[in-house]
Amino acid sequence: MRHFLILLSVMLLSVSGHASVVINATRVIYPSSSKFVNVQLVNRSTTTHLVQSWIDDGNPAAAPESIKVPFTLAPPVVKMAASEGQTLKITLRKGTPLAKDRETVYWLNVLDIPPVPENASGGDNYLQVAIRSRIKLLYRPDEIPSPASDIHKKLTLESRSGGSCLKNSGPYYVTVPQIIAWSGGDLKKKTDDNLLKATVFVEPFGCQSVPASIKAGSRYRVTWMDDYGSKKFGVIQ
């Protein structure tokens, strides 16, 4: 049997826990006044890996060469030796018109391609798995205020035909992984009573649909993620 290679790209992998090459961040913030921002990669394996990186505008299935975004990224392809670090430099193209009253979201992709096994011979069959990590890249205009620790106060529940939506009256994207019914107590108490089926990502001044069990007018504890990927808590209704 002839030697063959299966290359599997894992799409929409937001947490790179199984990748050898990892991103040392859960999201990237690009302030509009910055000339560039750096993102650090680390190869935690004992072998050299090939890494391809690119930025997309929200379509995870788009081929890197077909995507048009207002950023450049260097280097787009690099070999990373064992235990080596690599800095990705992201730069906004000059003259790019982006919103000044709210954040704009893009996505940073890092594809980790492991080496061919050393003991593989011409007649062997083997599986080579490439793991793709994808995190948010948030362009943040200097014209909006710095995000506060009580960003949940910009979140409210609004009734709509067929259910409710989580309304965001602030200029920031808000990631909400958990909403639970609330009648008081310790905000940080762990619970598995999550009413969300999947994490909700609410755009600035937008309203994202939530399950029918979450109703406007009732009180809920909401868990949201800050710039560093840490969980924060608050009460909404």
From TrEMBL:
Belongs to the periplasmic pilus chaperone family. Keywords: Chaperone, Periplasm, Signal. Residues 1-19 form the signal peptide. GO terms for cellular component: outer membrane-bounded periplasmic space. This is Molecular chaperone. Its main location: periplasm. Residues 167-230 form the Pili assembly chaperone C-terminal domain. Gene3D superfamilies: Immunoglobulins (2.60.40.10). GO terms for biological process: cell wall organization. It comes from Jejubacter calystegiae. Residues 20-144 form the Pili assembly chaperone N-terminal domain. InterPro entries: Ig-like_fold, PapD-like_sf, Periplasmic_pilus_chap, Pili_assmbl_chap_C_dom_sf, Pili_assmbl_chaperone_bac, Pili_assmbl_chaperone_C, Pili_assmbl_chaperone_CS, Pili_assmbl_chaperone_N. It is found in: Periplasm.
